[in-house]
Amino acid sequence: MSPSRWRSLAGILATGVLLGLYARGDLAWGLGFVALVPWLLTLDSDRPTLRVLANAALMSIAFVAAVFYWFGAAIGAYTGVGASTATLVLLVFAPLVQPQFIAFALVRHWTGRRYGPWLRAVAAASAWVACEWLVAKPLGDTMGHGLFPSAVLRQVADLGGAAGITVLLLLVNEAIAFAVERRGRGVRAWLRPLAAAVGIVACMAGYGAMRRADLQAAPADNAPTLRVAMVQANITDYERLRKQIGAYGVVRRVLDTHYALSWSAIRDHQADVLLWSETVYPTTFGHPRSEDGAALDREIQGFVDTAGVPLVFGTYDRDGQGEYNAAAFLEPGKGLLGFYRKTHPFPLTEHVPRWLDGPRLRGWLPWTGTWSPGDGARVLPLRSADGREVNVVPLICLDDVHSDLAIDGARLGAQAIVGISNDSWFTAYPVGARLHLAVAAFRSIETRLPQVRVTTNGFSAIIDDTGEVLANTSIGDQAVLTAFISARDPSPTLMVRWGDWVGRAGAVFLLALAALAAWQASRRRAVAAAKVESAIEVVALTPFWRALTGALRLCAGAGLVWLAFDMLARIGLQIQSLSQLRIFAGAVLAPAVAAWAIERAFAAQARIEGLLLVLDQRRQRIELPVASIASLRPWRIPLPGSGVDVRLAAGPWWTRGLALTRPHALQRMLAATGAPVRLEGRFAADLADLADLAQARADARRRIDHPLLKFALFPLLLALVAFRLHQVIAFGGAFGEYYTFGLAAYLSGLLIWWASWSIGLMLFAAVLRIAIETAVVLAMALRSAHAAAVRDALEWLGRALFYLGVPAWLAWRLLAMG
């Protein structure tokens, strides 16, 4: 192995060790600002893309080994495959479990070859958080969570969540790594990036200190306050107990223990509300499966009625769509207030998607779960016997690693967060339970809602609106923890207003950067195209074939206009039947494809060989002496597209016309031979303008304008979003029509939605094209010196309206419907 690869491996291992220490919390939180530096220095030395990719994959493996070594052992114990096997599988799949390292390294590598170190750093950080936003990780972890022990710096999370802190940590690491690289170039070379790193940390500290001061100085009010008692019974391993004392015996022991601890909470702590942990009642409440189950349901309600305090506890719920991990809200004398159904069940162990589920999977993985996901955040009230009330948003276990539910709850008027979890599988791995607690605390920072969180056997905790854990139990404790929550409405934070925006902003930034790179590349191509081309693409058409191709193009356009008029006049701009698709296929698609086929059949490559203009077609070669060409006349009617007729020096017109997108390129090619080729016609100036118009339109085209992308792939993406919403509304699930009517009906419905979007976007593109060409023609008519700039600006505006405006309109419609 070469010395450079040894250095790369050493850098990866050093970063892995530092990240492992950083993840343990306590005083090691400061390592987050330097942990990535050794790895970043290796990325700068690994130049080929494949080496960068391999480097990033190894880094993801090192990260999993150093930070999540306990996770493989916990999964192995749960599934019964053993710690070694599960850990090995986890390490093998580490690049898929932690893909942000690969996204970060590749974008950093790509950007670094084109731009400076600062833009490289921002782009790479954007790739990191965009990847974490797009690819949901099992534990919802991000690098920013490691900064939780810093009471001051973590307050930045109310602006951008833990992902926002991740971005800042990445930028500081990049600045320090850059300073290390430039240490031999003088003090000013390394002091500037180091000052930037210090400035970022100082801004974080200043904001955090200000926010803590504001929250602590908030005036007291007379808002109703409730005393919530969290009951941690420390009863775990239901399966082992079920084998020993039976299913009913397990439920009996769990309930009796919780009753005793709850009476103690009411008697000794004057509790107004009782809170039990996730799945503490391991069967369906309100939908009993047996007479014993119905008796237990009545018993729990009887306990609540006798105690005179409301109870929130983990149980199961079910309906016609399936069974759910749920939290039940019971009130004394009133019964069941409602359920909250867990929105984010743990993959495989709790929930298997329908498309993946089946006898074969369950034969391989017999421990896979059968719960269905709930339908989002819900705010429910906690009411004391004397009428005091606090609105809370419940979160169950994995729900609290996602920002969306707590934010949605805050928007719905929640005044506190109620978390219930079963962290018993962390019993032997307290580092996992501490990570879960820290991640849950970020939900309080982001929303400024206090939180009460109960678990089966630790860590149950009281968390204030700064994320401070005011009190907590330990793993293995049997205890009652009491907290106060008040009916106070905090001012909405930026996270509440904008949602979990950092990952989306990172994705948008990368798209904008990619668009900038594409634009710069196109400008470079345009500059190169200004030189004399050695060959250009043309279509050599006789008058008959030109007339036929033009007629087909007109038929396709007229068919599209007629179909749009028919839709608007009768049912609105939408496709509702297969008959409309047949009309579209016959009146629009068929003539367009036929015209394209004719053009492909007569396509040629035009180039100069000596003093000959050579047209190379698929089956023949045409040679025309340049000296025999007297002039070119642009087509006055651009059908089937722009092109020119060729007048020969002997007088007649050549028997073939040349359809081409860049007439000036052909003129320059011929002029380079020394032959004086001119534009001619009764209105030569107008014909020159037509040539200029065709040339400018061709120069403005980009790959993003390709018809397959605009009218096939892009409409498909939008149709998939709209079609999924239609399936959920009409059939109750993303694959509802498939399960109800079969695959043919499902695919037919998708085809109709796809065609509807494709036709709509064709019409929208036609409107944009008419507007752009009209504005450009006016600019040319006024002899504006900025006509080219006008076209360039309008083309990019049209692309923005097409590729960004339409999705934004769709998102607005979906939000309005929601």
What does this structure look like?
It is built from 25 helices and 20 strands. The chain is of the alpha+beta class. An 8-stranded mixed sheet has the order 16-15-14-13-19-18-17-20. The chain is elongated, with a radius of gyration of 34 Å. The two termini are 58 Å apart. The model is unreliable at 682-688 (pLDDT under 50).
Structure summarized in a few sentences:
By secondary structure, the chain is an alpha+beta fold.
Average residue-wise pLDDT: 85
Q: Given the structure, what is the number of helices?
A: 25
Distance N terminus to C terminus? Answer: 58 Å
Estimate percent helicity. Answer: 55-70%
Rounded to the nearest angstrom, the radius of gyration is 34 Å
Strand order in the sheet with the most strands: 16-15-14-13-19-18-17-20
Question: Stretches where pLDDT falls below 50 for ≥5 residues?
Answer: 682-688
Keywords:
818 residues; alpha+beta; six-stranded mixed sheet; 20 strands; 56% helix; elongated
How do the helices and strands line up, and which of them pair or pack?
Blueprint: H1 3-23, H2 37-45, H3 49-67, H4 69-79, H5 83-92, H6 94-97, H7 100-112, H8 117-134, H9 157-181, H10 187-216, E1 225-232, H11 238-269, E2 273-275, H12 291-307, E3 311-319, E4 322-331, E5 335-341, H13 359-364, E6 380-383, E7 389-396, H14 403-411, E8 416-421, H15 430-447, E9 451-455, E10 461-463, E11 469-472, E12 479-486, H16 494-498, H17 501-529, E13 535-541, H18 543-570, H19 578-601, E14 603-609, E15 612-617, E16 621-625, E17 629-634, E18 643-648, E19 657-659, H20 663-671, E20 678-679, H21 684-700, H22 707-731, H23 736-741, H24 743-781, H25 787-817
Parallel strand pairs: 1-2, 2-3, 7-8, 8-9, 17-20
Antiparallel strand pairs: 1-12, 3-4, 4-5, 6-7, 9-10, 10-11, 13-14, 13-19, 14-15, 15-16, 17-18, 18-19
Helix pairs in contact: 1-2, 1-3, 2-9, 3-7, 4-5, 7-8, 8-9, 8-17, 9-10, 9-15, 11-12, 14-15, 18-19, 22-24, 24-25
